[in-house]
Amino acid sequence: MEKEIGKVEDYFAHVGVVALKLTDTLKVGDTIHIKGHSTDFTQEIESMQIEHKSVEQAKPGDDIGIKVQERVRKHDKIYKVVE
């Protein structure tokens, strides 16, 4: 099962980081699924940052950066995989 938690606001290809605004909580160790027009992959959150500071978890409304394994595009949707 998956729950939408945000969408890609920006993507920084040179560092492989996606910027997004959360609509739900997210923590290191959670699994996310990023889906869009030409994007579709799942990965575990290994690290995330708020304003260039590493955090273990973030709450709804936070603007966060997550390192991703594949290229993403603006407006791709991000889902948290829920057991």
Folded structure, characterized:
It is a single chain. With about 80 residues, this protein is mainly β. The protein is about 0% helix and about 55% strand. The chain has strands at about 1-10, 15-20, 25, 30-35, 40-45, 50, 55, 55-60, 65, 75-80. The relative contact order is 0.39. The mean pLDDT is about 95.
Helix content: under 10%
- How large is the radius of gyration? 11 Å
pLDDT < 50 stretches: none
Class by alpha and beta content: mainly beta
Shape: globular
CATH architecture: Beta Barrel
User: Biggest sheet, open or closed, and with what strands and sense?
Assistant: 8 strands, antiparallel
Helical segment tally?
0
The largest sheet has its strands arranged as: 5-4-10-1-2-9-6-7
Q: Kindly report the CATH topology.
A: Elongation Factor Tu (Ef-tu), domain 3
% residues in beta strands: over 45%
What is the H/E string?
Answer: EEEEEEEEEE
What is the highest CATH level, the class? Mainly Beta
Assembly of the depicted chains:
single chain
The CATH superfamily is: Translation factors
Overall tally of domains:
1
Task: Please outline what is shown here.
This protein has 83 residues and is an all-beta fold. It has no helices and 10 strands.
Layout of helices and strands:
Layout: E1 2-12, E2 17-21, E3 26-27, E4 31-35, E5 40-44, E6 48-50, E7 53-55, E8 57-58, E9 63-67, E10 77-81
Antiparallel strand pairs: 1-2, 1-10, 2-9, 3-8, 4-5, 4-10, 6-7, 6-9
Structural descriptors:
single chain, 83 residues, mainly beta, Elongation Factor Tu (Ef-tu), domain 3, eight-stranded antiparallel sheet, two-stranded antiparallel ribbon, 10 strands, 0% helix, globular
